[in-house]
Amino acid sequence: MIMKNSSLVFVFLFFFFFFFFFSPLVFADLQVGFYNSSCPQAESIVQSVIQRGFNSDASITAALLRMYFHDCFVRGCDASILIDSPKKKSEKFAPPNLTVRGFDIIEEAKNALEAQCPATVSCADIIALSTRDAVALSGGPNYAVPTGRRDGLVSNLNDVNLPGPSLPVDQAFQSFSSKGLTLEDMVTLLGAHTVGVAHCAFFKDRLSSDATMDPRLRASLVKTCGSKSRPLVKDRTAFLDQNTSFVVDNEYYRQILLKNGVLKIDQEIALDGSTSAVVAGFASDGVGFLGRFGDALVKLGSVDVLVGSDGEIRKKCSSFNGPF
């Protein structure tokens, strides 16, 4: 009996290790290494394009993180944000997306992939891979990206309904929860504010009198943006992380604990009882945050994806293969 049970244990362990170490990791019908056979160079091609872009402009990391979030939060991660159709008003022309950038680098990667592997790699996967590569170049985690997404066939300005930066925690969480994301996921994904900027218009209401903002930060932001007595300069921006503005790290959480959150939602998660413990945990554990950040980005990237025969593989990321 002991030998029989031992044999069963051996067989179980054999299959466990075989599937764990040799089978592709699968996430909601996506899998790591999806293009290993159809386009083996796919990920290295994207990485090369992002490396060149990052070398000339380190702020591309923030731009790609924002694009990734804005794409996945509307119709799922289907590259619908890339469609360029001003007459029929695609997602790109919704007010929250007017300051999204990085479209050119996604198209550059797509052109390189089409030259190597025509009609194979989706624009949705290019966004996901590009975001990972940019995050890694900025000091963040180099996490495994499951691929196999297909590109969407719909892009409508009226579908864009993103959680705003002035929402209280409970209302912001309703948007995240509707995508299958937890409260911890929300706090983790807001850690993307470790890089990037916000336009003055998004936090102007906090510049007159807001007890939750450090007075020294407010004085600095008033110099940048203006105030009631000095007209707001709409095109000016401020770093969301006032310390390590181009590095993906946990400094964002340290700063909001010091009341240095620029956006209202940033400061709110440090003060709200439902999220403050997560913020404090990330502020004291940089390695833990980076690991959790990679996991949360992968989870976001699996929201409502198109796979199999759904959607299409676009030849050009800014337009559908057929008529709009």
TrEMBL record:
One of its GO terms (cellular component) is extracellular region. Substrate binds at P163. Heme b binds at H193. The record marks R66 as: Transition state stabilizer. The active site is at H70 (proton acceptor). InterPro entries: Haem_peroxidase, Haem_peroxidase_sf, Peroxidase_pln, Peroxidases_AS, Peroxidases_heam-ligand_BS, Secretory_peroxidase. Binds 2 calcium ions per subunit. Binds 1 heme b (iron(II)-protoporphyrin IX) group per subunit. The keyword Signal applies. This is Peroxidase. Keywords: Calcium, Disulfide bond, Heme, Hydrogen peroxide, Iron, Metal-binding, Oxidoreductase, Peroxidase, Secreted, Signal. PROSITE patterns: PEROXIDASE_1 (PS00435), PEROXIDASE_2 (PS00436), PEROXIDASE_4 (PS50873). It comes from Acorus gramineus. Disulfide bonds join C39-C117, C72-C77, C123-C317, C200-C225. Its EC number is 1.11.1.7. Belongs to the peroxidase family. Ascorbate peroxidase subfamily. Belongs to the peroxidase family. Classical plant (class III) peroxidase subfamily. It catalyses: 2 a phenolic donor + H2O2 = 2 a phenolic radical donor + 2 H2O. Ca(2+) 1 binds at D71, V74, G76, D78, S80, E91. Ca(2+) 2 binds at T194, D241, T244, D249. It is found in: Secreted. Residues 29-321 form the Plant heme peroxidase family profile domain. Removal of H(2)O(2), oxidation of toxic reductants, biosynthesis and degradation of lignin, suberization, auxin catabolism, response to environmental stresses such as wounding, pathogen attack and oxidative stress. These functions might be dependent on each isozyme/isoform in each plant tissue. Its cofactor is Ca(2+); heme b.
